[in-house]
Design the sequence.
């Protein structure tokens, strides 16, 4: 019973601190956290067809490149990654916002695409391009 | 011109949300420049000329683009459907080379005529390999030929034959000097693609472009090595044959990681 009382007191204290943190820190406010400008993956389709390269690039017609955009506010969404440096930079930014900027929202994982195109009138090439598609975003 | 987290008069710029810049629609010329930059990044600095529009349609029906399109589609497919056999009859070595490759190039066969050369009964095939990327490690190169039994001149010519590829070394007074490259047996009554390993020849041509005098293809009945025949007599499709059965060369490369780009 004693240990339960101790545990409950600890939990209560922790809850108080955490609610205080949220009140005093706009960067951890869920309202701000999930606004449209939070760092996240955004849709970007590169269309070779729209660029009128389809007479030259045989496949694909285009590809989902995606991009990362938004502000690095903490805590990030659960699926977001941030480097230790980014967290430190955010904290220093809170102390001195005019001097130290927020960290960058950038890709953390990228994947390749393959493109098939005519090299000239008769020769054809299938080439793998690394790091062309954003798989996930995070703060750096 | 502002990068991520760059400060501009007290405001920091973040991911394109630069509040100090008024966004505008770019001009047609600027749009072209941006497109050119994307092409440059892809290692394709020149836009295709406009007059070539829609020329891709019939070209894609040729054997070499079809071969690569087959590999491209197979590469996108999941494991289960990837195991289906393609019409090009890919060997285990081919599949390994495909998996290891960063660049796969095909070269259409040309009739690169050299006036002083007597061709006798064999066939000379020439490939423009000037576009082979520098700094790439070649894994393998193959010459692919299609044997169509319908096109064999007689029932006798549907039997077993040996196809041998030689690299043409020197041409003096109309005489050839040949170096053996590889040989393959075309089994009796079997139609389809035949492949010969021509890695050695391609490596030599890339290193010595002036020495590219093509390949000489010789055909003999499997049991009589002295009797040379024309490849078309046994049904081997030439570069003037049906588009999807024309001979071509394919090379597999592994990227060295060094990227050469045209100056922007």
Sequence:
């Amino acid at each position: 019973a004693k240990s339960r009382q101790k545990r409950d007191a600890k939990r209560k204290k922790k809850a108080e601190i955490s609610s205080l943190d949220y009140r005093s820190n706009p960067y951890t406010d869920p309202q701000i956290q999930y606004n449209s400008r939070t760092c996240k993956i955004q849709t970007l389709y590169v269309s070779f067809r729209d660029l009128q390269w389809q007479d030259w690039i045989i496949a694909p017609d285009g590809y989902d490149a995606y991009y990362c955009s938004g502000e690095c506010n903490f805590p990030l969404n659960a699926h977001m990654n941030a480097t230790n440096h980014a967290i430190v930079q955010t904290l220093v930014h809170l102390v001195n916002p005019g001097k130290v900027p927020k960290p960058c929202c950038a890709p953390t994982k990228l994947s390749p695409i393959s493109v098939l195109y005519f090299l000239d009138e008769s020769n054809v090439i299938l080439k793998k391009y690394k790091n062309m598609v954003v798989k996930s975003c995070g703060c750096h | 011109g502002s990068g991520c987290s760059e400060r501009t008069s007290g405001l920091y710029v973040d991911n394109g949300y630069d509040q100090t810049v008024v966004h505008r629609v770019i001009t047609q010329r600027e749009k072209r420049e941006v497109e050119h930059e994307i092409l440059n990044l892809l290692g394709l600095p020149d836009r295709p000329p406009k007059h070539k529009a829609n020329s891709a349609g019939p070209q894609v029906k040729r054997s070499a683009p079809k071969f690569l399109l087959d590999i491209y589609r197979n590469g996108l497919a999941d494991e289960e459907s990837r195991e289906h056999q393609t019409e090009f009859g890919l060997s285990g070595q081919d599949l390994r080379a495909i998996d290891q490759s960063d660049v796969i190039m095909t070269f259409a066969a040309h009739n690169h005529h050299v006036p002083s050369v007597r061709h006798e009964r064999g066939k000379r095939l020439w490939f423009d390999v000037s576009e082979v990327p520098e700094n790439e490690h070649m894994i393998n190169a193959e010459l692919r030929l299609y044997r169509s039994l319908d096109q064999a001149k007689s029932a006798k010519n549907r039997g077993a034959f040996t196809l041998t590829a030689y690299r043409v070394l020197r041409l003096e007074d109309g005489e050839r000097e040949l170096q053996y490259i590889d040989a393959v047996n075309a089994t009796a009554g079997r139609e389809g693609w035949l492949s010969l390993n021509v890695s050695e020849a391609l490596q030599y041509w890339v290193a010595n472009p002036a020495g590219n005098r093509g390949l000489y293809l010789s055909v003999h009945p499997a049991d009589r090595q002295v009797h040379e025949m024309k490849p078309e007599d046994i049904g081997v499709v030439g570069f003037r044959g049906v588009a999807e059965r024309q001979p071509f060369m394919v090379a597999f490369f592994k990227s060295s990681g060094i990227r050469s780009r045209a100056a922007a």
